Amino acid sequence: MNRVCRKKRMPALLLCLVLCLTTCLGIGTAAEWRDLSRQRGQAMRLQSLGLFLGVGEGSNGFTDFDLERSPSRAEAVTMLVRALGKDSEAKRLGTTHPFTDVPAWADGYVSYAYGQGLTRGTSDTTFGAWDPATGAMYMTFMLRALGYADGEDFTWDDPWTLAEACGILPLTVDRGDFRRADAVDVTAAALSARLKGTDSTLAQKLIAEGAFSQAAYDRAFQTYEAAMEEVAANAFYQEKERWESDYGTVLLGYVTGSPQSTGYTLCLVTRPAAALDEGLTITLPLANGQAPEQPVLSQDGQTFTYAIHLDEPLTLQTGMVCEAGTYAYTVDLTTGEVTMEVRS
Predict the structure, then answer these.
(1) How far is CA 171 from CA 18, 145, 160, 181, 329, in A?
(2) Which positions fall inside the SLH domain (predicted)?
(3) Is the pTM of this model over 0.90?
(4) For a FRET experiment, which of 37, 97, 165, 258 has its CA 20 to 30 Å from that of 187?
């Protein structure tokens, strides 16, 4: 069930995704604000494939992608290995690398990447695990994953020309101020890039290796129409009402007979005009399947508001206790973000 209490701001969740969380730690750097709405959508897509996880669970119970922060070298290698579909394999590895400064949670990932020739250390015994990862470094990692060799196909300090030619350098990537959001952009683009000397893409390689299925890949990058069809195809779901906008469609439905849950559901399916891009199905908070009150779509189609009223405290299935009061929600249909105000 959705978690709705004691938090003023929460990122929306991708409907029907398994929330895979990790507790990676890293070094953040101060940087100017950037609109990372589209990258958050890409992170949701990669998360659905198990290729990009958050840095933990926020106090609101949702995945924190921490996209604004610069990744550390240890994080960058971890993100790379997961993007290659080798998360499980890396977790089973012991410490086979020669470095003394790698934290325990990253040992398997660094061991895998080092053994495969995807990364090197800053010296014979140090990896520089907490040093900030640069854009050139992560691009070098990804080019190596595609089968290219630095010193032969490109130089490690200038991978940009080859990266652009391979199609793994989106225009939104900030080369100088490289953040986790940029790593998401590069990783998502790399899925459709061809491996060196072949007609096969990285995604096709991962599908062949069983990292994820073709159906899961198609679903992660589906169109608005396909996402709407997927919601309607749920045998336990019955649509009750919908609100149409240029940025997406809000659907109120009722689920009955499902072994997981019974009650009302509220979700947003994004259209191409949304900053998140199209085809994402995002659940909106409801308390234990309670019907939303006073649902209203704004005249400009950018926001959707509704409320949930609790006459007495309510304990959710998650164990979280919601205090009595009115929970007023505002959904930004362009970004998928939800703000909440609790009125006593």
Answers:
(1) 30, 21, 12, 13, 34
(2) 93-156
(3) no
(4) 97
